[in-house]
Amino acid sequence: MGSTVSDIPSVARQLTLNDLQPELLAHVLDFVVHGSLRPFPNLNLVSHYFNDVANGLLQRRMLLDLDPTKIKSARTKINKTLCDGKVLSSIRSIKIQGGAVIPEYAKVVPVCNDVPMRIQDDTVTLQLLADLIAKAHRLENFEWCHGQSLPPVLVRNLEKHHPKAKLKVFGWKRSPVDWNVVVNNDFCILKSPNLTELSVRTSYHAPVLLWPEFQNLGPRIVAEAPNIKHATISVSVTTPSQARSDFQKASEQEHQYLDKIGVRNKSLCSLTIDSKNWTVSDLDWAKSFVDLSHIKTLKLMGCVPSNEFFKVAAAELPSLENFSFNFTARYESSPQDAFLRDCNRLQSISLWSWRQSISLHTIMGHGSRLRKLELHEREEQNTIRQVLSAREVEELRLSCPHLSDVTIDMNMNEFDDSNLAIYQELSKFQPPLKRVQIYFDSLLGSDGTEQAIVPLREAGEMAILPFIPGDEGDPGGIRSSYMHGQNEAGNHFQLGMIDGFGNDEALLFIYSIWQSIFASPSPSSQLDIKFGEWERKGYISDSESRRRRFLKVRQAERDDEKDKITVEVRLPNLANMKVDTYGKPNWSIDSFAPWDLEHATFEYKTSSGRAAA
Length: 613
What we know:
- By secondary structure, the chain is an alpha/beta fold.
- Among the domains are: about 5-55, no CATH class; about 370-613, no CATH class.
- It comes from Phaeomoniella chlamydospora (Phaeoacremonium chlamydosporum).
- This is F-box domain-containing protein.
């Protein structure tokens, strides 16, 4: 901007859109749309209110970390907010995160003496949160991602002062030690009209089988919450083998109890079931607390439904529009393939490890209605991952012309015409694709060992896209600017975009893919590239973990940089990861605590997007 209020002429003239830079215009329009101010009549008012507008936008979302080690700073933040009327009027969303103290973590970072282990016992913090909810002028969302029980006083204040606000509860975990201390608190959200989204994870152990009436709390909340739209129910069973029969009996009691109360939710439109090591999560169980005829989105993760499930599911789910399934077990192909063939034409299909169970021809049968397709074959040891060919991508394009979001697998070692042909097919979609996600393998051998890294071709030899040579300091016509991390000692480090490759070389490779797929990119164009199994829980090898990357590629936001891209690099866990540093190759950041850097991101931007026409 550069100008101040004093620089503005005293005689104000009528404001036009051309007077505003894009960044300012975006903030102003966003602010005006929400009705906080009338349209600005002149430049003087724009300059006068701009800082307040920008600050108000930043203050709309408040994040509070109630981890015992950070709770004092959260209290300070709440106290300051309660004394600032402008902030209270700006807040639209409050997100609470944190959780119980992990014993190993407490040894490294001592817990404050005045902070109880359970948030329910922290009366000081609870009162501050209750006051914050009560005094916020127009709260629209309240997210509880704490893991511990949601205190009833917060739910009551939300219902009283913000009856239209959406309550979302994530990471809601229950284990045997919780039942006798927090289960009564959990009932506060049982019939809350504010609850719109719930994610609950329950661990079943042998001792908890003594309280079967508590096992169905998650499904019961889903059944009775009047306005809930999205629910995720995760179940893990760690009972000893001798207790399996007892668990089966408890599950039968759960079904009987839910049938007894006779409540089946009709507002729920999205249901996710994640029940690893549990073979009871079938259609009958879901039908005991949800009216499946209203379900539009069904996502099955880690569960092993029987073949009978797929034989009758199409008839039980007449409103289904989006289906996602992670094939953790190998099935006969006929029941699952028949399910996708018999159900209504879907708008979204997401299948993991699908090759042996679903045919591509069945997927293409959903035709022009299909908008989003995710096909991912997980990379495993001792197996060779099958990827789609360019011919198969062409068949998808012709059969499903309205696809706008596509996820496929590709082999990192194939820097040849096969990959180029796939990029070209992706570029032929009309209308153009809005998002493409590619899973590259992490270069693991069939025996789980590292393969030799095949170097990327030099810029002049790239078959994907030719580049006009740049100047002496930028021979490839492209250069990256790095965002560096820094540890407590002040030592800088640089993280590679692709493990084993130089960042300039990798950026050139990524930019080539971008230009090949998005010949005429728009601000909404998205390219996500994942190396290795990004979502995998736990590592199959240290080498595989070090090679994981998640690259988010977007068009530069500035109007004068539309020929450039920005690449955001995410890493799953920086602990024990080797990085390149200035004069210190293979310097280790083992000394970093994983909770300090696990969400770190690093951004790269091309300085020249000059490509041959």
